[in-house]
Design goal:
20% strand
Amino acid sequence: EPGQNQGGGETRRKSRAPLVIGILALFLIAGALGFYVSSRFINPQAENTGGVKATLKLEPFLVNLADEGEANFVKATISLGLAAEPEGETWNDVTVAAVRDSVISLLSSKKAEQILTPQGKDTLRKEVRSKVNSLSPDLNVLEVYIVDFVVQL
């Protein structure tokens, strides 16, 4: 009878081995899947910034908004993500003035409700990128980063 208990114990240990290996494999797969999902979907900007080689920080903007009958304003700091480091005359005083002027015109044409939502900020980014690239194609703006953004209502 003592020999039978040992045999039964060995059988039990053998039946647990595939279960333990299966659980470990599941944890490994779940970890890899979690890493993939978090890097791909939770922070998609990380993938989009692959082409950005330099950033140019613009001085903060303080602009009255286009809300009728209300004195609302926005304070925003914007950085431009560029495809390459600007060279020589690409980023001179005239270019800076033109870029700032276009951003101020764009911001002052907006109502608070248009820029308070995430979709509104995305639209603003696209419009800034389009305006700057039309003013100075040599800058080749790929991304617009809103670094600081406050709307006073």
